[in-house]
Amino acid sequence: MISNKAKKQIDTWIQKYPKGRQSSAVMEALKIVQAENENSLSAEAIAEVADYLDMSSIAAAEVATFYENYNHKPVGKHTIRICHNISCMLNGADDLVFYLEKKLGVKTGQVTKNGLLNVKKVECLGACVGAPMFQIGDTYYENLTEKKIDDIVDKLK
Amino acid sequence: MADIEIEIDGNVVKAKAGEMLIAVTDREGISVPRFCYHKKLSIAANCRMCLVDVEGAPKPQPACSTPINEGMKVHTQNEKAKASQKAVMEFLLINHPLDCPICDQGGECELQDVAMSYGSDVSRFTEGKRIVANSDIGALIHTDMTRCIHCTRCVRFGSEIGGIMEMGGTGRGEDLKIEPFLKEGITSELSGNMIDVCPVGALTSKPFRYELRTWQMHSVANIARHDLVGSNIFTQTYKGKVKRIVARDNDSVNETWISDRDRFSYEGLAHENRLLKPQIKMDGQWKEVEWDKALEFAVRGLVDNALNTGGGNKLGALTSNTATLEEFHLLQKMLREVGSENIDYRLNVKDLDNVINLESTIKLVELEKVDHSLIIGANLRLEQPMINHRLRKAALAGASIDVINAMSFDFNYRTNSENIVSPGQTVAILAEVLKSILERSCAEIPKYLGKVKIGDVAKCIADELLESNNSVIILGEHAINNPQAASIAKLISEIAQQTGSTTLNVSATSNSMAAEMVNFVPGQGGLNANAMLAADLGAYILLDVYPQYDFHNSVQAIKSLDNKNTFVVSMNSFRDKEVARYSDVMLPIASFYETSGSHINIEGVMQSFAAAVSAPSESKSAWKVLKVLADLLELSGFHYANSEQITGEISNQSHKQKIDNKEINITAKRGVSVIWQKSPYAIDVLSRHATALQATKIGQMHNALMNKATAKKEGIKEGGQYLGVPVIITEKVANNCIFVHANQSTGDKS
Ligand code: SF4
Ligand code: FES
Ligand code: FES
C-alpha cells in the first residue's frame, strides 16, 4: 500500500508534468515508494505505482528494472554499489567484487546475516578518474584497494 | 502524391517529402531488410537491420527512420550498405539460437530469410549464448524467448493497437527480456496478432505448435464470419483440414489485424463433436442412414406433418445468425414457395414486437475519423473487436467517447463519461438527451417528451453531440432485450437526425445483415420465432440451431420443439443432445470454411468466399442440402450448380423500414432487469468448440454480476448461484441490474 504521505509526495511530482502525462512521474514515484519499503520494490509495489499513475504495470516494471537505483530484493542497511564498468573493470573491479564477497561471506545481491550490508554491481558512476570505485550512501570511495576496503567497510555500522 | 524525386540505386523515384525511406523502397519493390519496422506500428529503429548508404551522410542510415528529401541519393546494395547489413545480421545472431529445424517459425521466419540473403555463411561467435526463460502467457501464444531479437513489435502492438501494454522489455543490456508483467499472461482480444508481427519464432501459435511447416499448407483467401466486420483471412489447409488462420490485409475492412476469435475458432472444426452422418429417428431410436434415405424421410415428414395437413402455414424455419447469405436465401425461398411466412433468425430476442430497427450509416474507415461517439449497451471491445479498434483510433486522435451501459467495462481508450444505468433507465436518459437537443435548437418538443426533466448527464451528452461535427451513435447487443428496445432505437434515430450524427447498429452480430438482406423474417401472415414456438407447428426446418445457446428462452423452446406431433428436420454441423432429443432427422452440414457463400458486413458490403476444405465425412454444404430438399419437394427454381448462382439471384429485399409505426414509449422500467450476454467466445457453435479460445480469460467469462444492493434485494449471496451461474458482487454493475455472462441459457431469461 502506498501511504498517504507518499501519495502526497508523488502528487507534487505529477504536477510538474502536463495534464494526462502523470506517468512521467514514474521514476520519482518508484523512488518514493521504494524509500517507504525498506529500500526495495516488490512486484506489488510496482503494480501499485503503475495503478496510481494510470499506466500499465509492465511499463512501470520496465523503468524499475532498467535503472540500478531500484532494488527488487531486500537490501542491507548499507548498499555497497561497486562499479564494474570499463574503467573500473580495467583497474581490477572484478577482483574487488570477489574480495568483497569473500570478506562479507555473501554473493552480490545477498544481504549479510546481520542485515547490515549488501553488494551491488552497478554501471559507470562517472568517477572513472578514481577507478576502481564504489559508492555507499551518498559518498564515493575511489582508488580502492583491498586494504582501503577493509578500512571503509569495517567502520560501517 | 508525388512531389519530390529521390534516387535509389541509380533510379529516380517519386515520393512525398517527409516519407520514411523504407516506405518508398517498399512501394517501389526494392527490398530492404528489417525487423523492428512494421507499417502499422510506430517507428522504433532499434534493430538497425535496415541500414542503407545515403550519399553525404558519414554513416549508414536506418531506412525506417530516415525521412527523405529532394535530391537524396540512396544506395541499398553498395559495398557500404551491404557491409553494414551483414554486420548487423551477425550481431543479431550472436544470441539467437541457430536451431531453425526445431523452431516452429522455420520457413516463415523473417530472421531466417534475412540471414539467408544478408548474413554470413559461418558464425564467428564461439562464446556462450544467453538463454531466456519462457513465460506462460496463456492458451493462445507459445513463447520461446531465447529466440527474441528485441524488436519490440509485440510491445508496440500492445500499447498502440491492442490498447493495453501487456508485453514489455524489462532489464537492460544483456539482461533485457521481453515479457508480460509477473505471470499475468496476455488477455487482449487481439493478442494473436502478436504472433503475426513477431518476426522470429519467439511468439508462435500454441494450438498450431509443431503441426506443420508453412510451405506444406495451402492458403485460401477467406472471410471470417464471427462478427459484423467480416475480417479478411487466409485459411491454411493441409490434406483437407484447416490448420491455421492468419490475417489477410484489407485496409477497408480489418487492415492487417484479426481478432483472436477469428484466428483461433477454426480449432473447433476438428472437434470430436461434429455431426458426420445423416440420421433418422425411428420409434424413438436414432439410426444412421444414407443421404437419400434421410432426405426422403425428411421430405415425407414435412409433407405429412405440415404441407399436406395445413399447407405452408404449418411449417416453420429457424436459423442461427451464422448461416451464409446463400443459405438464408434458399431457406426463405423454399418456405415462401410452399406458402409459409414462418421464417426467423432472431432466436435470442424475447419480444419480437419490440425490436431494434436502426440503420448503420457509417463506414468502417470513417469510424476512425469521428470526433465524438455515444456508445449504448455494448462491450464493444469484446463483442466487435475490429469496430472497437477503429473507434479507438478516433479516441486516440482526440474523439470524446460517452457511454451508457449497464455495467462498467474495460475500455482500451479514455472515455469522456461512463454512465452506468440499469437497462430500464436507458430509454429515460435518451429521452432527456433528445429533449435537451430539441430545446437548444428551439425545435418543437413532441408530446411524449413533455414531462421529461433533463438531468446533468443527459445535458452533457447532448452538449457533446451538438458540439461535435462528426459523431456516431453506437447501439449494442445488450439492448436487444431491453424492455424499451424499439423506442431506444427510435430515439437514437431521432437524436442522430437532430444532431447530424451517424449511427452504427451492432445489436445483432455475425451474419445477421445477410438475414436482413434476404428478408429472413416473417412476412404478411407469418409467425416470428417466438410465435412459432407457441403455435404448435406441424414441422420445422432448423438450420444450425443449438437451442441451449441460441434461444432466448431455451427451456420453453426445447419443450415446444420436443412435441410428439412436431416433425423437426435439423441441419447441424455439430452434435447436440437437445437437438437429438427433439429432432426427427439430423442432417450433417458443413461448418465455417467448409462451404462457399457470402457474408454481409455492417457496411452492407458483400464478401464472398470459397470453401477452403471439403466438409468432413458425409456432411455437405447446407445450400446443397436445401437445394435437394427443395427438389424433392418438387419446387421449381432451385437448379443451382454452385453457390455463386444463388448469390447472383439475390437482391436486397430487406423490408425492415416498412414495418414500424409504433409510438415511442419512454416510460422507464422500475425494478431489477437482467442482461444475458454470452461470453464473446460462445456466440457461435464453432467458437464454442475451439478449446484454446475457451481456455482464455475471455472464454472463461461465465458469471452473474450485480451490485450489493441488487444482490440484497434478490436475496443472492457472493459465491452463490444465479440460475446456475456463479455470482460475483461488484459495484461495476448498475443498481437494479444483473449482468449475466452465461454460455448457456440456464433458465427463463427475463
Ligand atoms: S517477442 Fe518477437 S515481436 Fe516481441 S520483441 Fe521479441 S522478436 Fe520482437
Ligand atoms: S567505469 Fe567505473 S566509474 Fe566509470
Ligand atoms: S527496421 Fe530500421 S532499425 Fe529496425
Write the layout of secondary structure elements.
The complex is a heterodimer of chains A (157) and B (750).
Chain A: H1 4-14, H2 26-36, H3 43-52, H4 57-66, E1 78-83, H5 86-90, H6 93-104, E2 117-122, E3 134-136, E4 139-141, H7 146-154
Parallel strand pairs in A: 1-2
Antiparallel strand pairs in A: 1-3, 3-4
Chain B: E1 4-8, E2 11-15, H1 21-28, E3 51-54, E4 61-62, E5 73-75, H2 79-93, H3 110-118, E6 141-143, H4 153-162, E7 167-170, E8 177-180, H5 193-197, E9 203-205, E10 218-223, E11 232-238, E12 241-247, H6 260-264, E13 279-282, E14 285-288, H7 291-310, E15 315-319, H8 325-337, E16 343-344, H9 364-367, E17 372-376, H10 380-383, H11 385-396, E18 400-405, E19 417-420, H12 423-440, H13 456-467, E20 471-475, H14 485-499, E21 502-505, H15 512-517, H16 529-534, E22 539-543, H17 547-550, H18 554-561, E23 567-572, H19 577-582, E24 585-588, E25 597-600, E26 606-609, H20 622-632, H21 643-649, E27 673-676, H22 685-688, H23 691-694, E28 703-706, H24 708-714, E29 721-722, E30 725-729, E31 737-741
Parallel strand pairs in B: 1-5, 15-16, 15-22, 17-18, 17-20, 18-19, 20-21, 22-23, 23-24, 27-31, 28-30
Antiparallel strand pairs in B: 1-2, 3-4, 3-5, 6-9, 7-8, 10-11, 11-12, 13-14, 13-24, 25-26, 28-31, 29-30
One FE2/S2 (inorganic) cluster binds next to helix 5 of chain A.
